[in-house]
Amino acid sequence: MTAITDTLRLALVQLNPTLGDLAGNAEKLRAARATAAGQGADLLITSELFISGYPPEDLVLKPAFVRACRRHVEDLAKETADGGPAVLIGAPWMIDDKLHNVVCLLDGGEVQAVRAKVDLPNYGPFDEKRVFTPGPLPGPIDFRGLRIGVPICEDTWNDEVCECLAETGAEILLVPNGSPYWADKIEERIQVMVARVVESGLPLVYVNQVGGQDELIFDGASFALEADRTLSIQMPQFQEDIATFTWKREGDTWKCVDGTRLPAPGLAEAQWRACVMGLRDYVMKNGFPGVILGLSGGIDSAICAAMAVDALGADKVRCVMLPYHYTASESLEDAAACAKALGVAYDVVPIEPAVSGFEAVLKPLFDGLASNVAEENVQARTRGVILMAISNKFGPMLVTTGNKSEMSVGYATLYGDMNGGFNPIKDIYKTEVFKLAAWRNTHRPADALGPEGEVIPERIITKPPSAELRPDQTDQDSLPPYDVLDDILECLVEREMSVSQIEERGHDAALINRIQNLLYVAEYKRRQAPPGVKVTSRNFGRDRRYPITNRFRDKR
Ligand SMILES: Nc1ncnc2c1ncn2[C@@H]1O[C@H](COP(=O)(O)OP(=O)(O)OC[C@H]2O[C@@H]([n+]3cccc(C(=O)O)c3)[C@H](O)[C@@H]2O)[C@@H](O)[C@H]1O
Ligand SMILES: Nc1ncnc2c1ncn2[C@@H]1O[C@H](COP(=O)(O)OP(=O)(O)OP(=O)(O)O)[C@@H](O)[C@H]1O
Ligand SMILES: NC(=O)CC[C@H](N)C(=O)O
């Protein structure tokens, strides 16, 4: 092992670990280390809590799990006796009977140093104070003569830890992250990291996890900032990568001399790829052979089918059209055209006999009563029963297709179209669904498994949305136009604005009050809804945790 005097070959390892698959994650690390060794690396840096996967949530409250994580890290440490690259790897770790979120330096056959995370995030999707104890303010770690500062993710979102590392002699900041994606997150991260570089005067290397973990998407996009704030490395977004770069000592600072910068995708592509990655990893990591979904000829199921094909390939996606009396002939044509464009298996299963059966059974109870939402919901639930039967019989997971606008106002039937295991568009408002569908018809991301060209027939995008649960129904019979609804919802959900603030944007006060009421009342439905991909700064699920029983209404 040579001392690091003037040159450091540093491998940035952004990989997709599977939560809880300790042996699998350790194997991934071994393979990455072999690759990095081939690239001449002295040191590998991986993402936060790499051995367990991030975020492990309450799994770390199980002592057997924490012990197993440690065993795997100690085994990996022994393997560094081979004189190859050293490793910075994260793990849940007991220190003096307290559980910490740490990074270990593995080198020369041993765990050379352990650093605990100081700043435990407890907002938005994060809940770390619940399970971890904060560590003391750290000093640098001596790595073969180089003093490396290793703040862990949230430690860099405030100034204290990096300042302490700089004051105690760190020469470079190496930051393992478990930083979830949401729209415009790359810019947010870079802004925050630039502030740390300016305050500390140190170069900073930022390595993030890749992959979907339940609701959260980790988008990689690791990067490095020079001490003068130059962005010298930008790694790919939504993709695993291992890349080794050379850092040279220049005077009293370190500079990357061979950095490369890959352009990040634009917002539409990023949102699409996040939804696709979330669905793919949910399905694959939970061991499903594929997915099924009800394809209605409407836009929500069409976009979900396209995302599923991009995620898994057409041979793993089965679509079922379940027509009833109110299904327009255009819907049958559009669903068939969409299935054909995507190249998926497609069945038509009329629900009339099953709905008639329910009506006959209910007749003695409902006799003489006008038909209403009860009968409408029987249609949605009949579809749900049939789709779940296919899922049970053949094994694929049912994809749930409700967008964020519908999830907000409860415009979906419990145990009907809310059935399913996972929802790729749960955090996408309806107006964005239209835009993304049009975007995908003209763009195909490099890692998409679906075809080029129009995958969502134009008429599905242009016709008025309808649940087709009664004659001539459209969504706008009971909801305002989606651009109005979505603006009000975004103000209420993402920005927590008051009714009077929203009114100042030009919306009608009575309408805002009605939407607010629908939003609060639908909390019970959201608690029973399947999880889905988070792509905004505030999703339903991990982020927004409102009470179900709640009499508060903001009044103008
Ligand atoms: N706080 C609470 N905690 C627990 N349960 C609660 C509850 N409040 C009501 N409930 C129960 O929930 C049930 C009512 O909910 P649910 O049965 O779902 O029915 P509901 O919400 O009354 O009706 C479904 C609505 O979604 C619309 N929809 C359906 C299907 C597709 C689409 C679309 O285009 O995407 C739209 C449909 O037009 C209708 O407006 C009742 O049994 C009620 O007792
Ligand atoms: N005729 C149908 N055949 C198959 N699936 C259906 C049918 N009608 C509804 N579904 C399923 O139920 C979901 C909710 O459908 P609905 O038509 O009520 O409203 P939506 O939210 O506007 O969805 P979409 O835009 O997909 O029609 C659909 O996305 C689809 O998965
Ligand atoms: N794991 C963490 O500490 C992540 C927190 C950080 N603010 C982020 O979103 O990137």
Automatic annotation (TrEMBL):
GO cellular component: cytoplasm
Coiled-coil stretches: none
Active site: 48 (proton acceptor), 117 (for glutaminase activity), 153 (nucleophile)
Keyword tags: ATP-binding, Ligase, NAD, Nucleotide-binding
Alphabetical list of CDD domains matching this protein: GAT_Gln-NAD-synth, NAD_synthase
Enzyme Commission no: 6.3.5.1
Gene3D superfamilies (alphabetical): Carbon-nitrogen hydrolase, HUPs
Highest taxon listed in the record's lineage: Bacteria
Pfam families, A to Z: CN_hydrolase, NAD_synthase
Example GO molecular function: NAD+ synthase activity
Positions that bind L-glutamine: 123, 179, 185
An individual GO BP term: NAD+ biosynthetic process
Alphabetized InterPro entries for the sequence: C-N_Hydrolase, C-N_Hydrolase_sf, Gln-dep_NAD_synthase, NAD/GMP_synthase, NAD_synthase, Rossmann-like_a/b/a_fold
Residues given in the record as deamido-NAD(+) binding sites: 377, 406, 525
Pathway: Cofactor biosynthesis; NAD(+) biosynthesis; NAD(+) from deamido-NAD(+) (L-Gln route): step 1/1
Domain CN hydrolase: 8-249
Binding locations of ATP: 294-301, 401
Reactions it catalyzes: deamido-NAD(+) + L-glutamine + ATP + H2O = L-glutamate + AMP + diphosphate + NAD(+) + H(+)
Family membership: Belongs to the NAD synthetase family.
Role summary: Catalyzes the ATP-dependent amidation of deamido-NAD to form NAD. Uses L-glutamine as a nitrogen source.
Protein name (database record): Glutamine-dependent NAD(+) synthetase
Organism: Breoghania corrubedonensis
